[in-house]
Amino acid sequence: MNLVAGLIMVAMFFWDGARVWGWKLEITPSSLRVRRFFRWADFPWERIRSVRITEESRDRRREVVALTLMGNSTEALGAFDPPFARNLRDRLRAELANRSPYAEQSEPARELVSTR
Predict the structure, then answer these.
(1) 0.90 exceeded by the pTM?
(2) Please, how many CA atoms are within 13 Å of residue 68, restricted to the half-sphere of its CB?
(3) How many other C-beta atoms lie within 10 A of the C-beta of residue 37?
(4) What region, left, alpha or beta, does residue 71 occupy, with left being phi > 0 and alpha being psi -120 to 50 degrees?
(5) What is the rounded (10 degree) CA torsion for 64, 68, 73, 75?
(6) 34 phi and psi, to 5 degrees?
(7) How distant is the alpha carbon of residue 92 from its chain centre?
C-alpha cells in the first residue's frame, strides 16, 4: 500500500513539474508562441481577435486566460493566479492592439481607486 501511494506521489510530482517547467510564452513580431508540456504552438497576430479571462477553471482561486481566434474558436493559455492572469491578459491586449489589424477593442481592466 505504501509503495503504491509513493509511486502515485512521484508521478504527481513529475506531472506538476512538466506542467510548470514546460510552459513558456514568447512574443515575436509575427506571432504569439506558447509552449505547453514542452510542445510549441504558434498563433499569428492576424488570427487573434481578443484576449480574455474566463471563469471556466476547475479551481476557484485560478483564472483561465484564453485567446479568441478567427472563426470564433478559443485557445486557453492556462490557469493562473488572478494577479498573474490579469497582468498577462493586459500585456497581451497591448501587444495585440499594436500588432493585429483585426483586434477587438476591449474595455480596459477596471482599477480600484483608494480614497485615502
Answers:
(1) no
(2) 14
(3) 10
(4) left
(5) -40
(6) -125, 130
(7) 10
Grid cell locating 9 = 506521489
User: Residue 23 is inside which H or E element, if any?
Assistant: none
Question: Grid coordinates in use for 40?
Answer: 510549441
Count of all residues that appear for the chain in the document = 116
With a CB cutoff of 8 Å and minimum separation 6, the contacts of 93 are 50, 51, 106
- What's the rounded Cα separation, in Å, for the pair 17 and 37? 9
Which regions of the chain does DSSP assign to beta strands (E)? Answer: 24-27, 31-36, 39-44, 48-54, 63-69, 74-80
Tally of helices (H runs) and strands (E runs) in the chain:
2, 6
Q: What pLDDT digit, counting tens, does each position of 62-115 carry?
A: 899 999 999 889 999 988 889 999 999 999 999 999 987 766 655 555 444 444
Give the Cα separation of 5 and 17 in Å (integer): 18
